[in-house]
Amino acid sequence: MPGPLGDPAGAAPLHRFAALAAARAEHTATRAFFTPRAGAWEERFAYQAPAYEAAVARMRLRPGQTVLDLGCGSGRALPALRAGVGAGGTVLGVDLTPAMLTAAARAGRRGPAGLLVADCGRLPLPAGAVHGIFAAGLLDHLPQPRTALTEWARVCAPGAELLLFHPSGRAERAARHGRPVSPDDPLAEPNLRPALDATGWRLAEYEDAVTHFVARARRRVRASRCGGSPGG
């Protein structure tokens, strides 16, 4: 008779434990990196606020909607997101590092938005509750980008907007770190487009310029129960 590790039923709990342990280690490393930097983060990158505002303007937000800023850091996008959804909308800044949300509150961003400590790959939100997601400098740093995209699609309503942003282009960032642009970069269009397609999104806009990176996608309309195909 096979032991508990020799059959699928026994292996499943071990796999879940390994995944949990890996996620916890990733969380610890992320917090260890950002916590000592959080206090100076806003002052260091405040000059990027106009670029964040311009990026948010590409999203088709409407008054009364619910929008997330995932990996919000000190919250540079939060005022622009609030302007997009108006006083009747909901804006939530999500970050894994409590010290970053403290920096956001110190910068006055608790007024425009709620602030939540959470893993962006396991959002404590119901399905279909969100109309827009803004994520700056996040997706390419996640260990499983497709898993994150799937989770973001879960919490989004059909037609919701996803905006992936960075205030510099991929080539500029690679040069800054002394390396060439990797063909395995999750943000390269040949990699990003199929990843979005496979996780419930449709890429609507892709722009990798010297001064910025923007990829805008829309949550696909789910197939009807009569067997219709998903809409764009």
TrEMBL record:
GO BP: any one term: methylation
Record keywords: Methyltransferase, Transferase
Transferase listed as a keyword: yes
SUPFAM superfamilies, sorted: S-adenosyl-L-methionine-dependent methyltransferases (SSF53335)
Pfam families tied to this protein: Methyltransf_11
Source domain of life: Bacteria
Protein name: Class I SAM-dependent methyltransferase
The species this protein was found in: Streptomyces goshikiensis
